[in-house]
Amino acid sequence: MKIQKAAVIGAGVMGAAIAAQLANAGIPVTLLDIVLPDNPDRNAAARTGVQRALKARPAAFMDPARAALIQVGNLEDDLGKLKDADWILEAIIEKLPAKRDLWEKVEKVAKKTAIISSNSSGIPMHLQIEGRSADFQSRFVGAHFFNPPRYLHLLEVIPTPSTSEDVIRTFSDFASTVLGKGVVVANDVPGFVANRIGVYGIVRAMHYIQKYGLTPAQADQLTGPVLGRASSATFRTADLSGLDIIYHVANDLAAATPDDEDFTLTQPFRTLVEDRKWLGDKTGSGFYKKTKDEKGKTKILNLNLDTFEYEDQGKVKVDAVEAVKGQPLARRVAALYTLEGREGDFLRGVMNDGFWYAAKMAGNVSNRLQDIDNALKWGFGWEQGPFETMDTLGVQTVIANLEAEGRTLPPLLQAMKDSGRQTFYSGDEIVTPAGDPAPYAAPYLILTDLKKDATRVVKKRPGASLVDLGDGVLLAEWHVKMNALGEDQLRIIEDAHKAVTSMGYAGFVVGNQGDNYSAGANLPLVLSQAQDEEWDELDAAIREFQKATTSLRFSPHPVVAAPFGLALGGGCEMLMHADHVVASAELYTGLVEVGVGLIPGGGGTKELLLRFTDALLPTQQSGALLLPAVQRAFETIGTAKVSTSALEARKLGFLRSSDTIAMNRNHIITEAKRKVLELAPDYTQPTPRQDIPVMGDAAIGAIKSALYGMHEGKYITDHDLTVSNELARVLSGGVGNNRNARVSEQHLLDLEREAFLTLLGKKGTQDRIAHMLKTGKPLRN
Question: CATH fold of 6-185, please?
Answer without folding.
Answer: Rossmann fold (3.40.50)
